[in-house]
Amino acid sequence: MSANGQNRHARTTRLARKLAVVGTGAAVLALPLIGATSASAATPAATTTAATATTAATTYPDNLDGWIRESLDVMAQHGIPGSYEGIHRNIMRESSGNPMAINNWDINAINGTPSKGLLQVIAPTFEAYHVPGTSWDPYDPVANITAACNYAADRYGSMDNVFGAY
C-alpha cells in the first residue's frame, strides 16, 4: 500500500472512471498515464492486424499431442464425436503412439490386410471411413486418427466408447 493508504489499482481505477466521465478524448490521452502501453490499440490498423491474426491457420506440433488436437479439429468440422482422452487411450493401447506401427501377426495380417498406424486401421476400413481433407496415407497420423474415429463413431457411437480391440 502507498503512504496515503490506497493501493495503486484502486487509484488508477478511480482515475479511469473520472476520465471516462470527462470524455473519450481525455481518457485516450490519459491511457499511458494509467498503465496502458499506448492508445493506438483502437486504431483501424491495429484492428485489422488483430482480425488477421485470428483467421490465420492453426499450427500443430508434429507429435502425438498435435496429431490428436488436429484430428479433433477435423472431426469437429465433420461432426465426428470423440475426446482427447478417448483417442489417446486407444492410441496407447493400439500402437503406443508409433504412427508407423504395423501388425503383421493377427488374422487381418494373415489375410493380407495388416493393421497400420496409430489406431491400427486396416486398408478397407481406412478407405471406407477416410475423412475428406486428410491424407490418403494410412500412416499419416491425422488421417489415421480421423478415419478410425469416424469408423468408431459409426460402429460404437464414439472412440470414447472403445475399450479394447475394435
| Strand line-up across the major sheet | 1-2
In terms of quaternary structure, the protein is: single chain
Please give the share of residues in helix: 40-55%
Encode the helix/strand succession as letters. HHHHHEHEHH
Q: What form results from the Cα inertia axes?
A: globular
**Alpha-carbon Rg, integer:** 27 Å
Instruction: Look at the structure and give the mean pLDDT.
Output: 79
- Strand tally, please? 2
Q: What structural category arises from helix and sheet content?
A: mainly alpha
Strand content: under 5%
Q: Span between N and C termini?
A: 63 Å
The largest sheet is:
2 strands, antiparallel
Provide the low-confidence segments as ranges: 1-53
Please, how many helices?
8
What does this structure look like?
- This protein is mainly alpha-helical and 166 residues long.
- Helix content is 52%, strand content 2%.
- The protein has eight helices and two strands.
- The protein has a two-stranded antiparallel ribbon with strand order 1-2.
- Helix 1 runs antiparallel to helix 2, helix 4 crosses helix 8 and helix 7 (123-129) crosses helix 8 (141-156).
Write the layout of secondary structure elements.
Layout (H helix, E strand, L loop, with lengths): L7 H15 L1 H7 L13 H12 L8 H15 L5 H11 L7 E2 L3 H4 L4 E2 L6 H7 L11 H16 L10
Antiparallel strand pairs: 1-2
Helix pairs in contact: 1-2, 4-8, 7-8
